[in-house]
Specification:
heterodimer; A: alpha/beta; Glutaconate Coenzyme A-transferase; 10-stranded mixed β-sheet; globular; B: alpha/beta; 9-stranded mixed β-sheet
Chain lengths: ~260, ~300
């Protein structure tokens, strides 16, 4: 979907917002699809010294050598800095060397907890694939960024199953359960960008994408969503960002 | 040893079998299909994520329990046989021991190192760790900090698909490793399927690349394209379309059974499976150009 008044699609806005979460020199636990593009964009523009880790053991400082569906695809190995083990890169996480990790999920709640295991749908319990490495990234990265479609069923007040920890039930929860750092910094959705209030650990709407209203965001959120007093419109991609994105996704497969 | 004989001899009903340890690459699909053809039952499967191989074994009725972090179809999302087994008990009930990728790796690493558990800081507070048979909160004896103890998982058999091996199972693998090394060291026996059987001199020319030493390996079967539809670096690229087609065809139980008849039960061995795919499709999956590493010098 293309927003009126800008040249960018919603997905391009999301990828650019993700890229801006990566600072130069950071070690990034990269996911597939939109975060992978976000990493490529950040490296090409404002974070040329960022390093990307993949949970299968791949360490890269450049985009894959061709299009990939999974992190284990051959183009993600060619030109890598290192191919090591899963235990090795999880060790970097646990050691505190990973600055930011990207996550998605079926559900995210008020405190940024993620569910990828069980959901209820029309009175039925639906079994989803499970954690994979998400619970590890959520537990151990210095901070996480969640990328989600903004739909009411994906934004319940409380997840039905807590796969990947956010702030649990409030700001002191992580410390109380034994987690030594981390927690979600941003949730980037199809409608806006949200942060977290340090006092309550609760999600706060920080910006809406061009053409989106606060009412629309609240209608698609399953609790009484707080709105930042400094609410703004999500900055649209610059011509330079769009040009680089089109280079990495020329067919618009991920961002069309 | 032919793959059929290796599965016959080393994979028995009720065993704990680790597979798909490379995550999305080098998944030993040919070995999994042979397990289905031989009608194994009550297996416990161990793996991190398992891109549709576990789903096939579950749908074929081979599996009683899964110890895994993720069961699905990486390209398409849901794995329908896994869902049918968990939600409806079809073809029969399935016990699931949920993990994260890190905890399943640590469970195998504990077994590999000969200790009953390893401590970690991951998944504390997650529902994954709640009422779990193998994850237990503990207090650090040095600092008093809260930790999670991950109990060892001991596979009876770990099955790996690798690029090349000598006849004794000294195996060279490269590219993506995942948890293959820990799974091999944790197991009672390792079965290797390989793209190429090579002379021991090839293995000895680059001992740093011998990531699985032969003394762990009980059988080696030469199975070119044995990872299809998953990739094997330098030999076979990923057959993305296959995963999408599998997703569409296995939406219903009847659809899955038709798929199983056509691709597995109706093929005698992996050679026939590959013939069913057709030469043109396989040719399109072969790497188009070599991408050689610089040689290393072990000179005296």
């Amino acid at each position: 979907m293309r927003d009126s008044g800008t040249q960018a699609t919603r997905r391009q806005i999301m990828v650019v917002a993700a890229a801006r979460e990566i600072r130069d020199g950071e070690v990034v636990f990269v996911g597939m699809r939109l975060p992978l593009l976000g990493f490529a964009l950040a490296r090409a523009l404002h974070a040329p010294r960022a390093i990307g880790l993949f949970e299968n053991g791949v360490v890269r400082d450049s985009p894959p050598a061709g299009p990939i569906i999974t992190m284990g695809d051959p183009p993600n190995i060619v030109g890598a800095l290192a191919c090591t083990t899963l235990l090795d890169v999880m060790g970097y996480l646990q050691r505190g060397r990973v600055h930011v990790g990207f996550l998605g999920g079926a559900q995210v709640d008020r405190f940024g907890n993620l569910n990828t295991t069980w959901v209820d749908q029309d009175g039925r319990r639906i079994r989803l694939p499970g954690s994979g490495g998400a619970a590890d990234i959520a537990s151990l990265a210095q901070r996480t960024v969640v990328i989600m479609q903004h739909e009411r069923r994906r934004f319940p007040a409380r997840v039905s199953y807590l796969t990947s920890p956010g702030y649990g039930t409030g700001p002191r929860w992580r410390h109380a359960v034994g987690l030594v750092r981390g927690g979600p910094a941003r949730v980037i959705t199809s409608l806006g960008v949200l942060g977290f209030d340090p006092e309550s650990g609760e999600m706060v709407l920080e910006s809406v994408h061009p053409g989106v209203t606060v009412e629309e965001v609240r209608a698609h959120t399953g609790w009484d969503l707080r709105v930042s007093p400094a609410l703004r419109t999500t900055p649209v991609p610059t011509p330079e960002e769009l040009e680089v994105l089109r280079r990495f996704d020329p067919e618009g497969i991920w961002t069309g | 040893m032919p793959l059929r004989a290796a599965i016959q001899e080393f994979v028995r009903d009720g065993m704990t079998v680790a597979m798909g340890t490379g995550l999305e690459s080098c998944i030993p699909f040919a070995a999994g299909h042979e397990i289905i053809r031989q009608g194994r039952r009550d297996l416990t499967l161990v793996g991190p994520i398992s891109d549709i191989l576990f789903d096939q074994l579950i749908g074929a009725g081979c599996v009683a329990r899964v110890i895994a972090a993720w069961v699905g179809n990486v390209g398409a999302g849901i794995a329908y046989n896994f869902r049918r087994a968990v939600e409806e008990g079809v073809p029969h009930a399935l016990e699931v021991e949920d993990h994260s990728n890190f905890t399943v790796a640590l469970a195998l690493e504990a077994a590999a190192r000969g200790v009953p558990f390893l401590p970690t800081r991951t998944v504390l507070g997650s529902d994954v760790a709640r009422n779990h048979p193998r994850l237990r909160e503990m207090v650090c004896p040095f600092t008093g900090a809260k930790l999670l103890a991950v109990g060892a998982v001991h596979p009876d058999v770990t099955i790996l698909h690798v690029q090349r091996s000598d006849p004794d199972g000294n195996a060279h693998l490269w590219g993506n490793l995942g948890i293959s090394l820990e799974a091999a060291r944790a197991a009672e026996a390792v079965l290797v399927t390989c793209e190429e059987l090579v002379d021991p001199a090839v293995i000895r020319s680059d001992p740093n690349r011998t990531l699985v030493p032969g003394f762990l390996v009980r059988a080696v079967a030469v199975v070119p394209s044995g990872s299809h539809p998953s990739p094997t670096q330098g030999y076979l690229n990923r057959d993305d379309r296959f995963y999408d087609e599998y997703h569409d065809e296995t939406r219903t139980r009847e659809g899955f059974l038709a798929w199983l008849d056509r691709m597995v039960l109706g093929t005698r061995d992996h050679q026939e499976y590959l013939e069913r795919l057709g030469e043109a499709r396989l040719r399109a999956l072969r790497p188009r150009a070599p991408h050689l590493a610089a040689p290393v010098d072990y000179g005296l």
